[in-house]
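Model it.
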Amino acid sequence: MNIENEWEWVKIPNGEWAAVAKYRDHKLSEYNTNPIIRSLPPIFSREKFVEYVTRLPTCKSSERELEPQYRFHCIERLSRYFDPLNKTVDLQQVVCVLIMQGYLRRNPLQPEYALRSGQIYQAVLSGGGFNLEEYVDVPTSASGLTIIGPSGIGKTTNLLNILSLYPQVIVHPAHSVYQIVWLKVDCPHAGSLKGLCIDFFRAVDKLLGTNNFQKFGVKRNSEDYMLAQVAQIAHTQHLGVLVIDEMQNLVAARRNSSEMLNFLVKMDNIIGVPVIRVGTNEAFPILQGNFRNARRGVGEGGVIWDRMENNREWNFFIEGMWEFQWTKQYIPLTANITSALYYESQGIIDIVIKLYKMVQWRAIALGSEVITVDLIHACAADGLHLVKPMLDAIRSGDEKWMMKYKDIAPLDTNLYRNKCLDSLEETDLEEVRRLARSSQRMGHISATLRHVIIELINLDVPPATAKSCAEKVVASHEEDTDKKVLIKEAYKLALQCGNISTEPVQHQERKIKLQPKYQENDIRAIVENAKKNQTPACEDLKALGIIKDPLKDFFIGE
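Modeled.
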């Protein structure tokens, strides 16, 4: 779903774009009395949600005929591939409830909204924001959510795709207010509450063009004062949900991590802003210990976002991903391929998508243009070595071994892609450089001639022969002649020149017919020439003694 087409947009001075509020009938009386809730998108059915968030890369069969360097770029489209899982749909419904329910007790048309603003302000005046909970006693309707799981399995990606269906900022001209539907900040590495507040101020300033950081983010301000200002801004700007990612950073917090967690609970319980906490497995003991004792606990619940199991859903996911293939030869998906991908990725989506990219790069670089089970295992051994210890621990099922690896670091495939590009080019690099020198000596050559030369080299024609044949054919045709015709004729001419390998070519989709390499007095060449000259082949064969005159066997000389 492209939300830009669903809304009217206005530019906020010094800020981002905001959607102009459109008030909907949500069919529920408690929602329809609050303009902040009425401005939200409709409550999506499961079918509509899947339709809106599925993101498939463009993939045309004709692109498999492109030169390798272009196809390397095509393969990068897989980085944007998103196929929602069953648990993605479930999470969307939880987030929708979280946001809408969180707004129930924060209706700007009701007196309790102004009362809460006054109480927060009083907390700042009287105690610099200290003990905020003693000043604010207006009931809330917000709940929190915790999402825990290893890196690379799509926690943040799924959550952001869900939130992408909501405009981040909505402007209400009738009420002269801005509504920030969602805001995401990362937990500071030191677990600092001041750091969290500063990141919050900056994020709001970027959206609204405000100067909260300059007013409240200076060092001389106390931590309590900053936290109170965060609470006031969240309330005044009608923040729908606050997402705190990278909660595992609390493990390295210099101070007691419970202070950060207690404040996030206050956002739920006192200010009424739902908070979604996202972290890796390393954060689980901290979050579990804190929220077991919190007043509202984990609110809507805790989600363990684990890797995929090798089951029907995995097969369906791989089936969808497999369609996006840019090797010259399209290889159908088999059960062995699906199993190999699971073995090497252990159901971690980030890894399987990146492995699929690696496999295609390698197949193209090798020139085989074919994806096999062996190639999948080879690419995994070569490109996943940084995460191999963690994957081995997962495969073992040994909990003690797995505990050594509390997190799986994000995998960077850029080095592997560059390695494949180098491999692709190194065999032809000297010849390319030789051609470049020759090109400099003879001056500028046309793009058409260069294209024909490159294609002949890809067909295993020696570079010197490729250049000579291409020049002759291009010079003998009009400028607008189809390049495929030029390549075909140049290749035929190159075959007649000899010095070309006649080993079977792996590129099965090439439509140029390979010609045999003729030897001296080759019968095939004699017959072929006779056909061209429209003369009896037998006469030439007799002249060479290949066919004898049958009468000579009975002739008795004098």
